[in-house]
Write a structure and sequence with these properties.
CATH architecture of the largest domain: 3-Layer(aba) Sandwich
Strand order of the largest sheet: 4-3-5-12-6
Helix content: 40-55%
Number of helices: 12
CATH topology of the largest domain: D-Maltodextrin-Binding Protein, domain 2
Distance between the termini: 50 Å
CATH superfamily of the largest domain: Periplasmic binding protein-like II
Number of domains: 3
Order of helices and strands: HHHEEHEHEHEHEEEHEHEHHEEH
Shape: elongated
Length: 304
Amino acid sequence: MQIEQLQYIVSISRYNSISESAKNLHISQSALSQSISKLEEELGLKIFYRSRLGTFQTTEGKQIITLATEVLEKIKCIIDKAEEYKNPDSHELKIGLVSGLYLPFLSTIISLLRSDFPKLTITLIEKGSIEIIDAILDEELDIGILALYENTLRKKENIHFEILYEENMYVFVNEKSPLTSFSYLTPQQLLNQSFVMFNGEYMNWFFKKFTNYYGDVEVLFTSSNSETIMDAVRKGLAITIETKMELINNPYIKSKELIPIPLREHIFEKNHLGIVTLKENSTSVERKSFIKLLKSKFKDMVKN
């Protein structure tokens, strides 16, 4: 049995035609037929039966072709991985990280990646989610970690998206706020409150839709510095709305100086934090390893 014979039977099953398969494989029909006959003789069973309508799989042949497809996929993985390791030169992995996002386990992932790939140079670049998408399309970044919502999902034609985490919204209030008596909050309960808001692409989009739908609110200030915002909330000067990711990042929550309360509203579809890569690019072994480690850390975080 040869690899080429596995490729032949998979091709014939796709076209249901020896002539079309021979044309696609760039060999003669007689050579293809002889090769299939030899394989059938070696296996002791018929893989195909022939009729006026074409060449079709037998019951046994379907199972053989399924296994052949899996073997060919494994062989491709071996070849791809070997190609990655052929080049001893150092590689660079450029990762776009949405502004304002802090992942406490990111440094651990980078350390693990560097231990597997000592010559790998890793660059982290903070941008807005749409800027990251554009940089991926221009091949200025290899991977993007960003907010997946209506503005970024519009550019999905050449982009591959993977969900990491569902981004539910929370209201953050001072420990002495009367709002702490509620197990969840609705937008109507917040309209008489003073807000401080993070000045970033995704939160600006969210807050604009929020006020357009529910009405204007008083905004004390906006800032691209999340520590400044949380400090104002901690001092009881205002409240803020932030994503669920803030729950794992904020030290004031652990000290109970800030209280997060789920926000219940009905105008927003589910939004997510996710990974984006370029569809056409062959994924390097370093990129695959980074994504695998990142997904594993998020999976552990969700469990906890």
